[in-house]
Structures are given as structure tokens and as C-alpha cells.
Amino acid sequence: MDSRALGERLREELVQLTRIAPSSRPWQMPFAAALCSGLPLLVGAWFGHLDYGLISSLGGLTFLYLPETPMHHRMVMLMASAFGMIASYALGVASHLLPLAMVPALTFTAILVTMVCRYYNLGPPGSLFFIMAAAIGANTPGDIYGVPLKVGLLTMGCLLASLIAFAYSLFILRRQPPRPIPALPEPTFDFVVFDAVVIGTFVGFALALAQVLDLAQAYWVPISCLAVIQGMSLRAVWTRQVHRIAGTAVGLLLAWGVLSLPLDPWTIGLTMIALAFCVEILIVRHYALATVFITPMTILLVEAGSIGQVPAETLIHARFWDTVLGCLVGLLGGLCLHSPRLRAWLGLPLRRLILPRHELDRTTPD
Prior knowledge:
Blueprint: H1 3-18, H2 28-47, H3 50-59, H4 71-96, H5 102-119, H6 128-138, H7 147-172, H8 189-212, H9 220-229, H10 234-259, H11 265-282, H12 287-303, H13 312-337, H14 340-354, H15 357-363
Helix pairs in contact: 2-3, 2-7, 2-11, 3-7, 4-5, 4-6, 4-7, 5-6, 5-8, 6-9, 8-9, 8-13, 9-10, 9-13, 10-12, 10-13, 11-12
């Protein structure tokens, strides 16, 4: 390859990485999403239990699964997503009581949730927040007596998100017509089952690797892995990896600035609202720009209760290398996921293991 061709290739790559996508998303949607994440923190600050507000704030992420369909359909989809969020978090919290079960539990959750999301054609963010809830729950300290309290707090966050989503839907449906309910595509074994098994396996492997390396907050590695590997093509996987690493690097500088401020429970809640609003404005336009704000938001979501106990520099350094490790595992998983040779090698044994004989005869490729 000569220098001109190499220069042209690098220019095309730069265009792909810096392209800003257009968006018709109304500003009211990011504002409502920000309230779902921030209001639980303000309520927690009011009652002097910021740790309770942090758990409920995680449940507020359910709002992001609200589709743009008619009212009856969007609320049913949102309530189903709330159930999935509660179940995923409950399984993660329960697995913390038995450390050896954490990796199998997260792997199982990732496989099952990905299958369901793909079967029902659930759009972005897909399985991300369900698995994120399970990973954070698995890495939250506590005993068996705290499980009902934590699951109940997350359920209250999901309920708040449902109420805000209902109010937002009443408002927005008066101003723009809903999109038609999409027809479910014909599910295929490769898309629903094979891809889910590969994705879940690498998410579990990312958590196991983080545990072997004795990382302080192992949840960050599988989340970063999932965010990268769920790209719909190898091109998308590569772009996501570059965007996430670059966005995280800049976002950690922003996080360092935020953590350097004299934060109290009230300012943490208000900061979370501002960050969530920026994320939802940018996420449909450019993933790296959104990641700049996702990074400090996620750090506050998980670490707000321990701010001041750990130096900001130590926390930021750890998060960067956790992200790099998770992205590398996600890139490896993406290579396997989009490899025709691996798909042919593992596809038939997986079909024989899962499908009944009459379905096997019908779906086995020639």
C-alpha cells in the first residue's frame, strides 16, 4: 500500500470516527431521563440516605427503554423492561453472597437477557442496562438481610421512571404522532441464540479476568466489554472500542474536575441530572462525545457514597485501565462473533445441544 492509499484510508477512518449523526429527538426526552436518574438522589439527600438514592437512581435508567409507539404499547414495553431490570439486579445482588457464583450468574444473565432483547427486537440500549444492573449488584457489599431492601429501592426507582414516562408520553403524544408498532422479525438461531451465547460468554470472561487481576470495582470491565461487543458489525465494534476509550479518557478528566469540587448529597444529585441530560442529548449523535459524560455519571452512580474516602487520582486511574481491559475483551469477542469460521464450527454443536430433533432438521444449514 503506497503513501497516498494509506493517507486516503486514514482519512476515511477519521471521517467514520468523527461523524456526527443527525437527531430528531426532542429536548423533553433527555430532560425526563435526567429526572429519572437525578430525582432519587435528591430524595435520598432529603432523607439523609444518599446510598438509598443511588440504588433507586439505577432503576431510573428503565426510562431509556421507552419506545416512540402509541401509549398502550410504550407503557407495556416499559413495564416489561422494569421487570427485567429488577430481576437482573436481584440476581446480581444475590450472587454477591456466594462469590464463586458471580461469574456464572452474570454469564447466565447476559445470555438470557440478550436472547430476550433480540427475540423481541428491543432497540438501543438493548441489553446494556440490564447487565449493568446485574454487574453493579454483584459488586455491591452487603449481606442476605440487605437483599430485599436493595431490590425494593431499585423497584421504587423503576416505578418513578414509569410515572415520569407516563407523564412525558401524555405530553409528547399531543405534539407529535407516535411511530407505528414495528412487526417482530422472524427470529433466527444465529441472531437470537448463537450471538447471545458468545456475548454472554465474553461478558462473563471479562468479569472473571477482572477478578483474577483483583480489580477494585470489577463491574466496569464487563460493562465496557458489552458496550463494545454488541455492535452489529465488526466495523461497529471497532468504532465503538475507539469511541469508548477516547471518550473515557476525556471523561475521566471531567470526572477528576467534578470529584475535585466540594460535593455534598444535594450537589451530587444536581450534577447527576446535568450529566444525564448531556448524555441523552449526545448519545444518538456521537458515542464518544456521550461517553465523555457517561464516565463521570457512572462514577457518581456507583462511587458517590465513598467520595472523599479514595483519592480522585486513584479512582480515575483505575477506571481508565478497567475500560481499556473491557474494550480489548469486547474487541476479541467481536472478532469471534463476526467470524464465519467460528460460527460454522460452534453453530452445529450448539444447535444439537439446544434444539429438539425436528427443529434441528429444519434449521441446520446445508
